[in-house]
Amino acid sequence: MSVEDGTVQLLIEDDANRTALAELLEGRYEVRTDDAELTGDVVLVDDFSVPTYRDRLESLEASSSFSPVVLVRREGTRIDLDPTDSDGDHRLVDEVITAPVREDVLHRRLTNLLVRRRQFERLEQQNERLERFASVVSHDLRNPLQVAQGRLDLLEPAVSDADREHVEHARESLDRMDSLISDVLSLAREGKELENPSKVRLSSVVANAWSVVACPDAELVVCNEEAVVVADVERLSSVFENLFRNAVEHGRTDATIEVGTTADGFYVADDGPGIPPEKRADVLERGYSSADGTGLGLDIVSTIVDAHGWELSVSKSNGGGARFDVSGVELVRTQRA
Predict the structure, then answer these.
(1) What average pLDDT does the segment 98-121 reach?
(2) What element of type H or E holds 308?
């Protein structure tokens, strides 16, 4: 390995400790000891120096970028600033290493954090590309589409009854383009990295999603009213909206849709015609559609599931319809009040 593997910035007040740590790192990483500006890929601070650099560390923690911090802490030493939050999760620091520091442990922890930082940087670049793509779709495609729809509205009164069919076909095509643009924009948004997942009551998200899906003949059954999951609320709602629409648009408008929990996630099942086993893998492929939809609804679901680090699978429901299982979900058990 070489110093190109990453830059480690030392926030160590004691000269002897700073020199000792620098010797462990030099040759493998680029070491910076200047604290005028925090520019290292990884910041390393010891327990003695934490109070001095508290404001710097908090600014790093509050920033939108991932700048990992490693704390070297002597066993049994009490510091004025607790580097963890009330839940015991690291807030100001990402790794704690007990002194005296073993070189192999230090290198292993730093390497893992550098890998995470590189992954974060790639995700940031991906998000920037998605933003540019969404801007193109939103303005460069939707604006001329709106012009075409407006011109069609102006022309329609002058069209004879004999040619009315052509107007209807044109309007249907424009409406389909509008739906495609909306779904592509959803994909661009949902593919972004999760920033603030939180604990949410599953039944509340389900109820909100159900209110958006206009299908008065369908029935919703929620099997677990108390389940709480850790997720992005808006994107989780989009998962249920798309699965509900899929059930009524590709199944029956009077379908009974069931939402329940499993040992490591949740499911949405219906009593419609179901999906043949040979097509269950296909329905999760991008753009697949067996009807007049855009074919992106389930792709949006898959994208959101992937962004959470979950897994999506398709099977047959107890009612003979389709069942979509989302696994790998962090479930928070609650008791009824």
Answers:
(1) 86
(2) helix 297-308
